[in-house]
Here is the input.
Amino acid sequence: MSNESAETYLRQFAESLLRQVAGGRLTPDECSSRVRAVAAAFEGTGELDAGLADSVHGDVEVALAARSADAGTLMHLGRRAPISVRPGPPGVSRWLARSAGGPGGERNGSHEGSLRGIRVTPVGAVLRVRADATRADRTGDDDGDEDIYLLGFVARPGRAWLAVAARTNERPARRPASPRSSRGAGAKRRTPTTFAGGGMTAVDDAGQRYDLSFSGGGGEWYLGRLTLNPAPPAGLGRLDVRCGTESVRVDLTARARAVAVTTLPLAVGRAEAYLLRRAETLLTRPALATAEAAGMADVVPALRASGALAGDSPVPGQIAALCERLGTPGRVIAMPGRLPERWENFLAATGTRDGTGSGTGAGAEQLTWRTSPADASALDAARLAVALRAGDGIIIVLAGLITGTDGITIIFGGLYLGADPSAAAADADPAMWVRDDAGGWHSVSISGWSSDGNSGVTFQAVVVPPLSPATSEIEFHVTGSHRPAGPQAARQIRAVIPLEWWSAS
Here is the structure.
């Protein structure tokens, strides 16, 4: 379907809904949401330019406002539908796509060159910083012990960073002879830790000194990266990382274990790939099932009418079955079919059945662990050092993995523009999954990210269900945009990665 015919379909669809609004059979919000759902599908599959899709939806909003008896309606234009072409974390892919055309974007000559320009080294070291009781007594600060887990080292032209998870423990009990702070109880404030407050440095094997600046988030736990300033030269052999009077040596000559990478078919054409990406969003956000089913009831016929989706495609039936499992009618989309093995396994593991389970989303937005100080030594970490091309001009880096005592697994990594920055997709972040060596499937959802220069971001991603330290090997599956170039099948990358677990206990 050309842009012109897709626009015609969408406008005719919108006009039919507007007539239903005029006849009192549909609410304005329902009309707006349904038009936006089809517009998003046409945009997401390349059937319609983004500007045209937004224009049609905007025209519908204006028409609804003109029909409204509420004089203030025109002040509230721009409602968004429950489904959107952008299901991922706000800003990650769109930020990368904007960076592709901006100044300073990296434009390496080839994919091989782009991967060689990124060096990922497994680390696996803990810097233990113990509280200075004398300073605390003098200043009244309540900063306590800090355990700083250095997980992996990532270097690329002009920038280098360490993946880090750091915990501030409670201070030991004050000595009986110590005077109490003169501050009132109501004025007491938690002061920044030495770690997060910029008190860390590093020295390389040539004697060059670096300041380490933290980017990320935290509460009792800080999760993110430590960036080296200035950018170090290539080929560093080691770093002595320091915080206060304590230090730990990081060996940067270690090599990551071999990773086997294969390419697997994902879907036939852009429409199937788009629908699958939307469906997999539901696995980690089941509360959206009702809105998604309503939208898909319009989207599937629209994609079939455009010729983008074959009439015998099994994907609509799979999505219908998923919605039924999540407790919302899926038959409005299609007759429910058989769930893919990955979805079935994931739903069984997380306990999300018929809308009664909440395990799928539990912890998906949580990056601050709440554990007692006695549990700090039980943190398990795995060396993970991989760089892969995810498609759409994006390189994905994995730089460490940890499992906390409360059963949350976090993967640390980054997304970078590769050989063709202009190919970076603005509408979908890479979909990531892990399959453990026992055959269990785990979703990987980015829950925190920050800019890493003009052409990259670093992230922390939650793995649901969590990985056990008994896992010796994982399959890491990553899929890029749901808009593959040309009519060929969409594909995903599978990397078989050995895990080497370590603990500071």
About this structure: The two ends are 61 Å apart (CA to CA). The chain has three domains: 3-76, 92-172+190-259+365-503, 286-358. The first strand starts at residue 119 and ends at 129.
